[in-house]
Amino acid sequence: MSTSPADPHLPAVHLRPPRNWINDPNGLAFHDGHYHVFFQYNPHAPVHTQVHWGHYRSPDLVNWEPQPIALTPTPGGYDADGCYSGNAVSDGSRMVAFYSAHRNDRWWQPVTSAESRDGGLTWTKRPDLLIPTPPDGATMYRDPYVWREGDRWRMLVGASVEGDRGAAFLYESADLEHWHHRGPFLTDDDGHAPGTGGWTGWECPQYASFGEQGALVVSLWDAVGGPRDVRVYVGSEDDGAFTPTAHHRLDHGPDFYAPALLPAPDGRWLLWGWSWEARDAAWSDEAGWAGTLTLPREVTLTPDGRVHQQPAREILKLRGPRTIHLPEQTAAPEGLDLGEVGPAFDLTARLRPSTREPGGLRLSTAPGEHLDITLDPAAGELVVDRDHASLDPRARPGRYRLPLPEGTDPGSAVDLRVVVDGSIVEVYLATGEALTVRCYPTGTPPWRLHTLGPVHLAVEAWNLVAGSRTAPLEHSAALAA
Ligand code: FRU
Description:
By secondary structure, the protein is mainly β. It has two domains: 22-311, Glycosyl hydrolase domain, family 43 (Tachylectin-2, Chain A, 5 Propeller); 315-464, Exo-inulinase, domain 1 (Jelly Rolls, Sandwich), CATH 2.60.120.560. It has helices at 281-287, 477-480, and strands at residues 20-31, 34-42, 52-58, 65-71, 82-90, 95-102, 111-116, 124-125, 138-149, 152-161, 165-173, 180-187, 200-210, 213-222, 226-238, 241-249, 257-263, 269-275, 289-290, 292-293, 297-301, 307-311, 319-326, 337-341, 345-353, 359-366, 369-376, 381-385, 399-403, 414-421, 424-429, 434-438, 447-452, 455-464. The chain starts with 19 loop residues before the first strand and ends with a helix. Beta-D-fructofuranose is lined by residues 23-24, 40, 51, 84-85, 100, 142-143, 203-204, 227, 257-258.
């Protein structure tokens, strides 16, 4: 297995343990002076089975300390086949994790909980399930999300209901112990997943309130295609029922799912997503790992009701030397060599079309292998093209489109930020849209940057240097026991 840090596809800045499987971020909470990030984790193999809750913590979102595994399936118990997704809250003295108890012999994953009184080092599971059965009419049921509002605790659970529609059920509690079912918070009115014929369910509902307004984030799952993409509804709530005024896709890339929210102590909403592999399973097995979390993102609401995302401002602290600095050009010639950067880097660019033709940047680590990021003024889109990003046929190709905000003048400049780290690429528009994509070049970084097509551009790029990471998670006492 090529599991050493020399694996050029293994992210250095993005959170994930050095080996094995991860999926959703879970239980994001601020407790005892630390940000806690838990995540779906199989510590034994790079495949999704027997998922545990892995755990990192950080005082500053820069330096991360791997922690002992928090939750492990109990053989023969209510979560024998997996401690599935959920979240955690701090009530000051303890952290309480709410999660989905998975058994292969049950179609639903009932809600249960565990608590920690030592900052997340050790956890005690409740002896019985917290909410043993789904409400009538549910055909899928999992992924609790708990938050505090005034003097009560509230919980959403992801579901599908009759008519093949995604839904989130609402519960309330005064003490985190006794929960009262209020009914559906929101039900999808779209029904079937377009083009699949499968039924749709909502996984991992998350809720952020912004004063009078709220944002409900749901991960769309369909019975045929499995996990699909992430939608956010913006609207307001009246006595347990949420009324959306708009919805949009949260991330326009192919490799982003199951994001989770963390209310930071300074009032910010932070969000991490799961970015799955876009290469075949045999290659992940050989590499010994699969999946990564995205960067932490700051999430805000725009006055016109869109969710706006940018990398958390702390990521700026990871910038090392600036290796590319190009002031605004009148018209860069095709193929202009802009310099090299990486292996992990943070880039900002201003692209302004010089004709109606697409133009932008080409990033490559070897001849014949390139990831292209271009502005298509006629279509009003930023296009990320990984069709030739890897010479290895086991890497998935594809072209992805990030629509510019409605009303963008086709001749105007577009500001973007691109963070590349191993095999994950996150693209952000300054207007708040995001696109996450994986790519697996066979060449070895640094990356060389060129212009592609006709374009006016300004570019700056910095190497990224990860903050500290202490002992690998696998050395935790909990796993050794
Ligand atoms: C989302 C998801 C959740 C589930 C977990 C299992 O990716 O399917 O619905 O709880 O992953 O790992």
